[in-house]
Amino acid sequence: MNDIRNYGFITIVLFLFLTVSCASSSEATDDLSNARADVNIPETLKKADELFEQREDLAKLRGAIKTLAQARHADNRNYEVEWTYSKYNYFLGKQSETEKEIDAAFKTGEKSAQIAMRIEPEKPDGHFWFAANLGEAAKRAPMTVGLKRIDEIRAAMKKVIALQPDYQGASAYDGLARIELETGLIGGKTEQAIEYLEKGLELEKNNSNLRLNLAKAYLRVDRDDEAR
After folding, report:
1. Whose CA is closest to 73, among 106, 104, 30, 43?
2. CA gap 147, 18 in Å, rounded
3. Alpha-carbon gap, residue 18 to 45, rounded angstroms
4. What sections of the chain are H helices per DSSP?
5. pLDDT given at position 88
6. 49 contact partners, CB below 8 Å, separation of at least 6
7. 88 and 61 Cβ atoms separated by less than 8 Å
8. In the predicted model, is pLDDT for residue 78 greater than 80?
9. Which range has the worst mean pLDDT, 123-127, 182-186, 193-197?
10. Which phi and psi (to 5°) does residue 139 adopt?
C-alpha cells in the first residue's frame, strides 16, 4: 500500500504543487509593467498587507499583488517587497481555481523569491517561499518539475532551518518531512520524516500540519498508539 501511495504521488503530484505539463508553459515571469519609480515602499507594503489580510476574497488577494507590484522596480530591488510578493503569489496559487493563474502565480512566486535570496541570502524568507512555490509547482508537474528540482526544494528548506528553525511555525521541518513521505520510490524514508516532524514539534507544538503528518508517518511504521 505504501508503494502504491508513493507511486501515485510521483505520477500525479510530487510534493505539493503544478498540473499541466510544465511550469515553463506558464505565462508568469518577472512582469514589472506595474512598477513605479516614485513609489513609497513602506507605505505600499502596508497597503498590500491590509489587502492580504482579507485574502479569503480572491479579489483582495489579487489587489494585494497588484499593489505590491508597484514597488518592484528593476533598478531598485527591495528584499521585503520581493519575498512578500513571493508569499502573496503562493497564496494566490493555492486559492485560485484557474489553471493558467495557478501556474503563473507559483512561477512568479519562485522568481521573486530567488531575487530575495540574492539580496539577503542569510535571511530565511526568500528561501522558504522559494521552496513553497517550487514545491507546489512540483506537485502539479511531478515528472517535469518535481523529479528534476526536488534537491532545490530540500536545500532551500534546510537553509531555512539553519537560519531560523522556528520560521513560519517550524514549517520547514514539515516541508522536509513531506518530501521524505512522498518520495519513497526514489529514496524517501519514513523514519527520516518522523525525525524532522518531531524536531519541528519541539519548536512549535501548535503547528497542526506537523501533527497531522507525524500521525501519518507513525501509522506507516505501525506506531498506532503514538499516531492517535
Report:
1. 30
2. 13
3. 28
4. 2-12, 41-52, 58-69, 79-95, 99-119, 124-140, 147-163, 167-182, 190-203, 208-220, 224-227
5. 98
6. 64, 84
7. yes
8. yes
9. 182-186
10. -65, -35
Cα→Cα distances 209→10, 168, 177, 197, 200, Å: 21, 12, 11, 9, 10
Distance CA(109)–CA(26), nearest Å, equals 12
Q: Do 175 and 148 meet the contact criterion of CB atoms below 8 Å apart?
A: no
The per-residue pLDDT of the chain, averaged, comes to 86
Q: Which residues pair with 62 in a beta bridge?
A: none
Q: Three cell numbers at 152?
A: 532545490
Distance CA 202, CA 198 (A): 6
Side chain identity at residue 81, one-letter code = V
DSSP run (H or E) holding 28: none
Q: Are 17 and 137 in contact (CB under 8 A)?
A: yes
- The closest of 108, 96, 100 to 28, measured between CA atoms, is 108
Q: Residues 97, 213, 19, CA angle at the centre, nearest 5°? A: 30
